[in-house]
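Quick one, tokens below. Sequence please?
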């Protein structure tokens, strides 16, 4: 697929992130969706689910007597909950992991970036939109934020290794010397 030429960042996100590391994580997450072709995969899954619905309808009601819209709705809802929503949650988790890696390899410190999900969970809690408010994880297209936060902290060690191996500290030091700033030792 083609990489995006634009990623839009809302002012709401700017109010939520603390520092460029967290913003890099979120932007890396969005870029990861494109790199991993999640939109294309989702379209293929939706097409496969629609084809499966047609097959099931033909088997269940070859005469056409049952109300078509009812069958389509019931089967479509089942497809969403049994296949499409779990797939979307898996896509979000994969984009989180790759987003952290991309941020680390772009010289943003992963140990600072991972704090974003703690703040996001607190914000959701304030809005009453967290899992404690009755929102069921299986009805969402995103994993629960505490799970995402825990996954980020598990991935942080590898991301830190990616950060160290990318030569970021040397690049920043050399840039500081070249500019005569002495900011990075």
């Amino acid at each position: 697929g083609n990489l995006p030429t634009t990623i839009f960042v809302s002012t709401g996100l700017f109010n939520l992130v603390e520092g460029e590391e967290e913003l890099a994580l979120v932007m890396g997450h969005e870029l990861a969706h494109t790199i991993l072709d999640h939109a294309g995969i989702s379209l293929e899954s939706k097409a496969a689910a629609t084809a499966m619905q047609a097959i099931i309808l033909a088997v269940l009601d070859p005469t056409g007597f049952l109300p078509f819209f009812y069958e389509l709705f019931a089967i479509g809802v089942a497809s969403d909950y049994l296949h499409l929503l779990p797939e979307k949650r898996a896509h979000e988790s994969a984009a989180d992991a790759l987003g952290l890696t991309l941020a680390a390899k772009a010289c943003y410190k992963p140990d600072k970036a991972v704090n974003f999900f703690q703040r996001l969970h607190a914000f959701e809690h304030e809005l009453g939109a967290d899992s404690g408010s009755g929102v069921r994880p299986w009805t969402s297209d995103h994993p629960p934020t505490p799970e995402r936060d825990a996954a980020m902290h598990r991935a942080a060690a590898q991301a830190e290794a990616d950060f160290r191996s990318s030569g970021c500290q040397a690049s920043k030091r050399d840039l500081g010397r070249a500019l005569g700033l002495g900011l990075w030792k």
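The radius of gyration is 22 Å. Helices lie at 11-16, 20-35, 38-60, 68-105, 110-113, 116-127, 145-165, 168-179.
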